[in-house]
Amino acid sequence: MEPRSSQTRVEPDGVPRKTPAAGLAAGLPPSVLRDGPECEVIIADARWHGVVPGVAALVRRTALAAWAGTGPAAVTIALDNDRTIRRLNARHRDRNKPTNVLTFEYPGDYPGEHAGGPTGGDIMIALETVRREAQAAGRPIRHHLAHLVVHGILHLRGHDHHQAGEARRMEMAEARILGRLSVPNPWKYRAGIAGGEQ
């Protein structure tokens, strides 16, 4: 199963936001940050630190690069575990199993919305599922994590993959963004995962 967006609009629940200035430390040029989102990375499961060294900086840099040029928004990326993601997947998508990434778009009237553009949202990523998928595909976990961050951001930017044409456009956008971050094209690894990504 490919990563899926929940397509559920939820209210943000009081998570503090930071400015994209933190992206300067991640090596992004000011031109990218000027129009980028406020990006908060929450490490909800501390095991992420041992699995992906420098994980917060990697996720922030990837998210800001994926958002580049689409205008300001607030994005929170929570790195959690299968148990939490399974509970959210059951609640919001009626699927009582973990998945790799869930994307929740903020409502259109969220403060900070700009005319005609995405408002941002929350992206949740499950540690054990990401680790299993990366291992099955023979990819470094940090590359698979970067792919899922880009995937979630593209959902917030309006991309989807429910039909073949839109799925192909989304895959090409993912490959372009990841290429700029020196991450190999994830779709070249597809054959390594039976039935696609879980």
From TrEMBL:
Cofactor note: Binds 1 zinc ion.
Ranges of biased composition (kind: Low complexity): 20-29
UniProt cofactor(s): Zn(2+)
EC identifiers of the protein: 3.1.-.-
Class of this enzyme: hydrolase
Top-level taxon of origin: Bacteria
Binding of Zn(2+), residues: 151, 155, 161
Annotated region (Disordered), positions in chain: 1-29
Pfam families: YbeY
Subcellular location: Cytoplasm
Keywords: Cytoplasm, Endonuclease, Hydrolase, Metal-binding, Nuclease, Ribosome biogenesis, rRNA processing, Zinc
SUPFAM superfamilies given in the database record: Metalloproteases ('zincins'), catalytic domain
HAMAP family linked to this entry: Endoribonucl_YbeY (MF_00009)
Similarity section: Belongs to the endoribonuclease YbeY family.
PANTHER family reported for this sequence: ENDORIBONUCLEASE YBEY, CHLOROPLASTIC
Protein purpose: Single strand-specific metallo-endoribonuclease involved in late-stage 70S ribosome quality control and in maturation of the 3' terminus of the 16S rRNA.
Protein name per UniProt: Endoribonuclease YbeY
Organism, scientific name: Nguyenibacter vanlangensis
Gene assigned in the entry: ybeY
